[in-house]
Write a structure and sequence with these properties.
Blueprint lengths: L1 H14 L8 E8 L2 E7 L2 H7 L9 H8 L3 E3 L9 H9 L4 E10 L2 E9 L7 H31 L7 H13 L3 H14 L11
Antiparallel strand pairs: 1-2, 1-5, 3-4, 4-5
Length: 201
């Protein structure tokens, strides 16, 4: 699951021209009593995202808990999270956008974008980020459902949720490993969960 989320986040940032605009991205995993960086686009992004672990709250934590996006247009004048904002400004970040990804139950995550310029994220960026997070939430639920089905059917399950999901698609629908991976990647791209049966005719 982590691999799919990371690949999708990277693709999303590329789609909105984030690399050229200097955007950093990170995925924060939030569970009961646990907050940790799941993945990031660079060492700098991981460092910046790790700042909120030093505070009781932050945009990613709030987005994950509230299931609503959080936007800080200019961290230099933010008063909602003064400690977090001062720390990221000190690391050269002025804009923050965090959108929630619902993994399951109390387990959730947030995709957070960071930018050096204030007011870096347009309303269109916010709309696209929220839509991306909703697709990823559906993918997480699909992967977990497939993994549960596969895990119940084998005595020694593979190590990852993705491997379990692929195994389940192979067993239930007769797909090859390659076509099962392609199906899951297609779901990540467009968020549409349809029958994985190959088209005929």
């Amino acid at each position: 699951m982590q691999t799919f989320l990371s690949d999708a986040a990277q693709e999303f940032v590329e789609d909105i021209g984030g690399a050229a605009r200097g955007f950093l991205w990170a995925i924060t995993h939030v569970g009961p009593g646990e907050v940790r960086n799941w993945d990031s686009g660079s060492a700098k992004a991981r460092e910046v995202d790790g700042v909120q672990n030093s505070f009781a709250d932050g945009p990613a934590l709030t987005a994950a808990a509230s299931r609503e996006f959080v936007h800080i247009p200019d961290a230099a004048v933010d008063r909602l999270w003064p400690g977090f904002s001062a720390a990221v400004v000190g690391q050269g970040v002025r804009s923050v956008l965090s959108v929630p990804i619902l993994v399951e139950g109390e387990l959730s995550a947030a995709l957070t974008l960071y930018a050096a310029a204030p007011h870096a994220f347009s309303s269109e960026d916010v709309i696209h980020a929220v839509a991306c997070a909703r697709r990823l939430s559906r993918v997480c639920r699909l992967l977990l459902d497939l993994a549960r089905n596969a895990g119940a059917a084998i005595t020694q399950p593979p190590l990852s949720v993705t491997e379990l999901a692929v195994w389940s698609l192979i067993r239930e629908y007769g797909l090859t490993k390659e076509s099962a991976m392609q199906y899951l990647q297609a779901v990540v791209r467009d968020g549409t969960v349809t029958s994985p049966y190959p088209r005929t005719g």
